[in-house]
Amino acid sequence: MEFSLSFYRPRSFHGGNGRIEHGARSLLRMAMSTTCDAQEILVLVTEFLEVGGKIVVGDMLGPLRKLDLFGYGRRLAKAAKRFDGLVERIMKEHEEKARCDTTSMLLQWAMIEIINHPQVLKKLREELNSVVGTERLVKESDVKKLKYLHAVVKEVIRLHPPAAFTIRQPAEDCNINGYHIKSETRTIINIYAIMRDPETWDKALEFIPERFMHSNIDQCYLNLKYFPFGIGRRSCPGSSLALAVAHVTIAALIQNFDWKAEGGRDRVEAEEGPGLTMGLTKPLVCYPMTRLNLV
Ligand code: HEM
Question: Best of 236, 239, 248, 250 to mutate for ligand 1, by most ligand atoms within 8 A of CB?
Answer without folding.
Answer: 236
